[in-house]
Specification:
By secondary structure, the chain is α/β, with parallel strands linked by helices. Helices cover about 40% and strands about 25% of the residues. The protein is built from eleven helices and 16 strands. A hairpin with a 5-residue loop joins strand 11 (about 175) and strand 12. The protein binds adenosine-5'-diphosphate.
Length: about 350
């Protein structure tokens, strides 16, 4: 029975990989529905493996369709099974980008970082990369960086490495694009790593640095975007494989609309900065999906940093998180609308013709 299960899993992985590599536009949008805090609550959100159904009134329903919908009882294993092909494509030389999007509290950090007993995408992806490198016949050099974008400024989260003291607010960094179109960030700490444990230590340091910049550490994730970059150089790269490529793993700041949160002062400015950069990201993704001649990368630091990892032959995966609660319905609909805009436009047109 175990062999049959493993065979089934391998078959599903191959199928997902092929679907992923074939996909027009190379942007996939998944949705994850958070479990209800209490079983007794009535939720206006229902879902199956491809659709989220919103009950707007007693008689009116709206259905949103996605490449995959993770149900409230989906496990971290279920999520990673669908993500794994991206890791494979990184080993094959593609740039990739995985985003967690959604209102604060819907499980973005749970999906990306996870809990010690139930690790998320970041630790699994890094383990997966090292495993695949071991299995390959090529020499790879792996480098790790971690930063956040706060109020439109980049902060290096590994800046306390070496003998330097921890600086809660690292200086703003400059982004530049070289002649080959590769984006880099001036003076961003980029450390060579040899195994998963080395990366994990740096990742924990980055998470600690992120929290120390805020008086209330729990709120870091709603106030800034957290970005991890794993850069890969393949020595003696086989033909057709780029020598250098990278994957970005991004836990986006909370998408709740700042005007609705009644935040004031600094919190209002932080929310506004996040809203602006998320809408810039949405504009870039939908311009890419529409194959527009002009892609508005320059409208935010977030999209400037990701310029060479979105579009072209890069693999992009957007994981939109929603809450099933009645109280969150407005934000849930906003997130679903954002996700729908990010979806492959060709699929949308085909659907509307049916
Ligand atoms: P966000 O990063 O979007 O603000 P969190 O990841 O911090 O949200 O999630 C808020 C809380 O809900 C955390 O305690 C987290 O462990 C829990 N949670 C989120 N998603 C799930 C899930 N799918 N299953 C179990 N617990 C979850």
């Amino acid at each position: 029975a175990l062999t049959a299960h493993v065979n089934d899993q391998n078959k599903r992985r191959r199928q997902i990989l092929n679907e992923f590599l074939d996909l027009k536009g190379n942007i996939r949008v998944f949705c994850r529905v958070k479990p209800l805090d209490s079983k007794n609550l009535r939720a206006p959100v229902a879902s199956d493996t491809r659709n989220v159904i919103i009950k707007l009134t007693e008689t009116k329903r709206k259905t949103y369709s996605f490449d995959t919908v993770f149900q409230p009882d989906s496990s971290q294993d279920d999520v990673f099974l669908e993500i794994e092909p991206v890791i494979k494509s990184v080993i094959d030389g593609y740039n990739a980008c995985i985003f967690a999007y959604g209102q604060t509290g819907t499980g973005k950090t749970f999906t990306m970082e996870g809990l010690p007993e139930s690790p998320g995408i970041v630790p699994r992806a890094i383990k997966g990369l090292f495993r695949q490198i071991e299995e390959s016949n090529h020499m790879f050099v792996i480098k790790f960086s971690m930063l956040e974008i706060y109020m439109g400024n980049l902060r290096d989260l590994l800046v306390s490495q070496g003998t330097k003291p921890i600086d809660p607010i690292p200086p703003s960094l400059l982004i530049h694009t070289d002649a080959k179109g590769e984006v880099d960030i001036d003076n961003l700490v980029t450390l060579k790593v040899n195994d998963f444990n080395e990366v994990f230590k740096l990742y924990k340091l980055g998470c600690r640095n992120r929290a120390t910049a805020f008086t209330n550490s729990n709120s870091a994730s709603s106030r800034s975007h957290c970005m991890i970059r794993v850069s890969i150089t393949c020595r003696g790269a086989p033909e057709r494989r780029r020598e250098k490529n990278k994957i970005w793993l991004v836990d986006l700041g909370g998408s709740e609309r700042v005007l609705k949160t009644r935040a004031t002062g600094r919190r209002f400015d932080e929310g506004k900065a996040i809203n602006l950069s998320l809408s810039a990201l949405g504009d870039v993704i939908s311009s890419l999906q529409r194959k527009n001649a002009h892609i508005p990368y320059r409208n935010s630091k977030l999209t400037q940093v990701l310029k060479d990892s979105l579009g072209q032959d890069s693999k992009t995966l957007m994981l939109v998180h929603i809450s099933p609660k009645e109280d969150d319905l407005c934000e849930t609909i906003c997130s679903l609308n954002f996700a729908t805009r990010a979806k492959n436009i060709h699929l949308g047109q085909d659907e509307s013709k049916e």
